[in-house]
């Protein structure tokens, strides 16, 4: 049966942000639609509106002519609409079959849950999908890719599935896992589902989608047929955002000095032969798609991943970082992307979090730091970074995301680095904390540090960097000076591998 999904003037406002602004378009069954747009264009928000995670501020959407109002993703799934997010939504402690039939496990005549029956039913779907997993396997024992497949099977197991959406599903998948996902998408397409596929990867879009829906700044721009419009043209349609005053108002004492760090042909198990320089007092942006290898290159520099070739020079002297500790001793520190996993010690106080570098914590070489010295350092951090708290003895988890992030930066700054590497430092923090952060970055550079800023937010790299390096497919694709940098130049380098106007 032919089905149609229709968005009519959907708007969604968050405090201070128009995430979606009067979005209207249609999707039809048997069609794979790509969503293309910069970070923050509103793609995820639209999917969250669609499946009842968010309520639209205005507008409506209809499936097969019937207006829908979902109060939760659960309701949406019951009605045949499923969104697969990047973050897994499954229960790791349960089995594959239990996840697929969660909340509707088959029961036997006595009313008891019939696990055997569930396993049999799940085995049928697993076979349809051609996957080598057992229905009784615990989900936590599966790879990330298979965990994602379980989510897809869960949606697929509903006979009434009509719409299935994937929000940047391949970021953490290997090539062969991507192939299995594409086979599944082909299958869903042949069964006349409506498929929405959010991705920045042009090669994927060209391969599996029929149409591309382009978004900019919360607005719908156009729908084009895949392959009919040149990639550079699609990129042009998604750019053109205003950078905003937030960057123009920053104060920067700009004194760019001699070469501080030189990386020559550096390779690890992940990145291949990358070279670049960083000067004193410089903010060097690193742009590129998620998965382009920016984090991996930095991890090789600080010795968190093994180096397989190449050289690193700091102030002209060749150095080797066999561990992040050695890098720190040389004056190179990395503030990692995932604050929750690699940054904060959630159960400890703000003071401890500022004082203990993770390296000390991990190497059990704690030594004895005087309580007084710790207190002084913590108070200095709180003051220097305007961390909003009444006491350094509060637990760090009680702070907002932005203030937690400041504590982590304070910790690394207390080691007196020469090179400060920030990996997506403003991810998940609010607008006010962001602008304070930007000023901090300017101040660090003003004090003569070399700052490397990895960011997937184009306005952020454009607004802060003196020079921008773009990575694509684990290699540096090119470099652009701030004066010549535009969103479309950065995007075309990162997405196509060459600068196109
Ligand atoms: N829960 C939220 N609260 C406040 N702002 C949000 C929320 N979710 C998204 N936004 C904002 O809405 C805009 C669109 O975000 P998003 O839909 O995630 O974009 P995309 O998926 O295209 O990268 C961004 O400016 C983002 O910061
Ligand atoms: Mg998104």
Question: Would you summarize the structure shown here?
Answer:
Helices cover 35% and strands 25% of the residues. The protein has 501 residues and is an alpha/beta fold.
Topology (elements, then pairings):
Blueprint: E1 4-14, E2 17-28, E3 31-36, H1 43-50, E4 58-63, E5 66-67, H2 73-78, E6 81-84, H3 96-100, H4 115-129, H5 144-156, E7 163-167, H6 175-190, E8 194-198, H7 202-208, E9 211-216, E10 219-225, H8 231-238, H9 245-248, E11 259-268, E12 274-279, E13 283-288, H10 294-301, E14 307-314, E15 317-319, H11 324-330, E16 332-335, H12 339-343, H13 350-355, H14 358-363, H15 371-384, H16 401-413, E17 419-423, H17 431-446, E18 450-454, H18 458-464, E19 467-472, E20 475-481, H19 487-495
Parallel strand pairs: 3-8, 3-9, 6-7, 7-8, 13-18, 13-19, 16-17, 17-18
Antiparallel strand pairs: 1-2, 1-4, 4-5, 9-10, 11-12, 11-14, 14-15, 19-20
Report on this structure.
It is a single chain. The chain has 501 residues and is an alpha/beta fold. The protein is 35% helix and 25% strand. It has 19 helices and 20 strands. The protein has helices spanning 43-50, 73-78, 96-100, 115-129, 144-156, 175-190, 202-208, 231-238, 245-248, 294-301, 324-330, 339-343, 350-355, 358-363, 371-384, 401-413, 431-446, 458-464, 487-495; strands at 4-14, 17-28, 31-36, 58-63, 66-67, 81-84, 163-167, 194-198, 211-216, 219-225, 259-268, 274-279, 283-288, 307-314, 317-319, 332-335, 419-423, 450-454, 467-472, 475-481. It has a six-stranded mixed beta sheet with strand order 6-7-8-3-9-10, with helices on both faces. A six-stranded mixed beta sheet has the order 16-17-18-13-19-20, sandwiched between helices. Strand 9 and strand 10 form a beta hairpin. The protein starts with a strand and ends in a 6-residue tail after the last helix. The model is unreliable at 361-366 (pLDDT under 50). Residues 14, 17, 19, 37, 39-45 line the site of adenosine-5'-diphosphate. Adenosine-5'-diphosphate (ADP) is lined by residues 14, 17, 19, 37, 39-45.
């Amino acid at each position: 049966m032919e089905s149609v999904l229709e968005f009519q003037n959907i708007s969604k406002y968050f405090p201070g942000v128009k995430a979606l602004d009067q979005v209207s378009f249609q999707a039809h069954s048997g069609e794979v639609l790509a969503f293309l747009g910069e970070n923050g264009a509103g793609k995820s928000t639209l999917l969250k509106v669609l499946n009842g995670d968010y309520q639209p501020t205005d507008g409506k959407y209809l499936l097969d002519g019937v207006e829908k109002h979902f109060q939760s993703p659960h309701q949406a799934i019951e009605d045949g609409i499923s969104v697969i997010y990047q973050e897994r939504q499954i229960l790791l402690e349960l089995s594959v079959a239990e996840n697929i039939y969660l909340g509707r496990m088959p029961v036997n005549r006595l009313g008891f849950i019939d696990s055997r029956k569930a396993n049999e039913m799940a085995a049928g779907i697993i076979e349809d999908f051609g996957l080598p997993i057992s229905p009784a396997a615990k989900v936590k024992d599966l790879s990330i890719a298979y965990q994602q497949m379980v989510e897809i099977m869960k949606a697929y197991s509903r006979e009434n599935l009509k719409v299935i959406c994937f929000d940047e599903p391949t970021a953490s998948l290997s090539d062969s896992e991507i192939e299995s996902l594409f086979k599944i998408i082909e299958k869903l397409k042949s069964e006349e589902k409506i498929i929405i596929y959010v991705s920045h990867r042009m090669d994927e879009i060209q391969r599996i989608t029929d149409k591309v829906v382009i978004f900019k700044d919360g607005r719908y721009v156009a729908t084009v047929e895949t392959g009919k419009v040149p990639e550079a043209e699609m990129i042009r349609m998604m750019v053109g955002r205003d950078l905003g005053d937030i960057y123009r108002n920053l104060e920067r004492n700009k004194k760019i000095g001699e070469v501080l760090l030189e990386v020559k042909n550096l390779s690890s198990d992940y990145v291949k032969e990358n070279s670049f320089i960083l000067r004193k007092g410089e903010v060097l942006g690193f742009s590129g798609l998620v998965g382009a290898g920016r984090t991996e290159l930095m991890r090789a520099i600080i010795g968190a991943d093994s180096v397989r070739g190449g050289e690193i020079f700091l102030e002209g002297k060749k150095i080797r970082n066999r561990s992040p500790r050695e890098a720190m001793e040389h004056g190179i520190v990395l503030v990692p992307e995932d604050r929750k996993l690699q940054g904060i010690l959630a159960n400890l106080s703000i003071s401890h979090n500022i004082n203990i570098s993770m390296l000390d914590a991990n190497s059990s070489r704690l030594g004895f730091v005087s309580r007084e010295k710790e207190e002084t350092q913590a108070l200095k951090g709180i003051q220097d970074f305007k961390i909003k708290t009444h006491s350094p003895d509060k637990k760090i988890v009680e702070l907002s995301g932005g203030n937690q992030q400041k504590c982590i930066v304070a910790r690394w700054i207390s080691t007196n680095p020469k090179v400060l590497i920030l990996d997506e430092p403003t991810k998940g923090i609010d607008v006010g904390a962001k602008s304070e952060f930007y000023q901090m970055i300017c101040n660090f550079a003003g004090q003569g540090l070399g700052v490397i800023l990895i960011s997937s937010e184009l306005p952020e790299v454009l607004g802060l960097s003196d020079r921008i390096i773009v990575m694509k497919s684990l290699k540096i694709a090119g470099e652009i000076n701030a004066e010549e940098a535009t969103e479309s130049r950065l995007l075309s380098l990162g997405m196509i591998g060459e600068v196109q106007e």
